[in-house]
Amino acid sequence: MRVPTTLKVDVWRGADEGSFQRFDVPRMESQTVLDVVIHIQRHIDATLSYRFACRVGMCGSCAMTVNGRARWTCRTHVTKVLPNPDDVLEIAPLNHLPVVKDLATDMTDFFDKWRDAKGYFKGERTRAQSVAQVDPASVERRAADAGIECIGCGVCYASCDVVAWNREYLGPAALNRAWTLVNDVRDTQQHARMQAVSNDAGCHSCHTLGSCTERCPKALQPTASIAGLKRMGGRAPRRGGQ
């Protein structure tokens, strides 16, 4: 089969209101979607806006919507999303977030929801005290470990159907973070955290469709974390703190 020497690429241009612009990009071996975006910005249209940093799947800042699905573009090879060489590669910003320009979204709402879910640690020990000891084999520690590697890329949030129709919903990443802290025996705000994630915008609004788990680039399971919060929400807090 003849393989074209160029890629047909449709890239979103503008903000929330905009349109796709067609580019022809040279096809290369082992080419990632981020390689395509960088080529367009460096060699065709220097006004194209997007984000990236590490290029090796560590930071998550290059997440975009590729052919309708949220992905890390640095880890997504063109051949993976275009099994037919004649197909068009479509690149758009992440869903459910305001578009700053072109492929760059405003992540403020995403991280504000981490805050609203009390996705931050609050302890009671001072620097003058010895470091708290946590048993790595304990049930709580293992539950926290299962979700702790989230890097906040927003892929799960952009993939969540509940966020699509309920913009107040905290989303999979914020709730996953809350679950890791609920299982941190050193934390002192468990009661307040469970209140924060058990309202109409919290864990009970999850419909357990599993898109977040299916698409997480780190192979985490936010659906399971949210299910854990649902179970815990029906019981009294296990540890203290308001």
Structure description:
By secondary structure, this protein is an alpha+beta fold. It folds into two domains: about 5-105, Ubiquitin-like (UB roll); about 110-235, Alpha-helical ferredoxin (Fumarate Reductase Iron-sulfur Protein, Chain B, domain 2, Orthogonal Bundle). It is about 30% helix and about 15% strand. The chain has helices at about 35-45, 80, 110-115, 140-145, 155-160, 160-165, 170-180, 190-195, 210-215, 220-235, and strands at about 5-15, 20-25, 65, 70, 90, 100, 105. The strands form two sheets. It has a five-stranded mixed β-sheet with strand order 2-1-5-3-4. Strands 6-7 form a two-stranded antiparallel ribbon. Helix 3 (about 110-115) runs parallel beside helix 7 (about 170-180), helix 4 runs antiparallel to helix 7 and helix 7 (about 170-180) packs antiparallel against helix 8. The longest helix has 12 residues, at about 35-45.
